[in-house]
Design goal:
With 202 residues, this protein is an alpha+beta fold. It contains four helices and nine strands, in the order αααβββββββαββ.
Amino acid sequence: MKYTLAVHIIATAASQGHVPGRGTISVLAIGGFAMKKGTIAAALAVVLAIGGAVAYMIVQNNSDSQAGNNVDTTSTLTQDTTEPKEVAVITDKATATLIAQAGYTGSGEATRGITNGTFMHEVTVTLDAPADGTFYEGWLVDSQGFMSTGKMTKEGEGQYSLSYSNADVKLVKSHDKVVVTEETEANGLDNKPEAHVVEGTF
């Protein structure tokens, strides 16, 4: 029947995403006018069903399109909470070259200064190994006498060092001489300097 063919055309167009225009619906209405009332009613029901399906497809396509366009462009900003490193403030820095004394061979270097409000002193020397039962000890010297800065530590073959700190920053002005001595192990750190190995002045 002509009407049935028109319905088939509308259904095909709907499945391909095309919405039937008013002209198509008008043709359908005219073509089916001569049919029986029951047939017209049935055909009209089919047309309405197809029209509803087409409308649903259009709305759904629009919704999908809008969802695709709604891209979340929000970016997360991470706050840098890393604390800046403290920069050491060093003042009154000086260096002394240490020279071997009679009976010894070797050399070394000493530094002094005030770092963040604290007197700092370091000594590094290259010397032969001390005799059995002895060790190397560092000293700072002023007009009043010797002040021990401690036993030197062996760092490697022939390498010895020490690090010393003191809250009394006046030492940077008063103690301007450095001495490394060879001390008797049995006596320990007795605050009595023995044989001078190397020495120098800031």
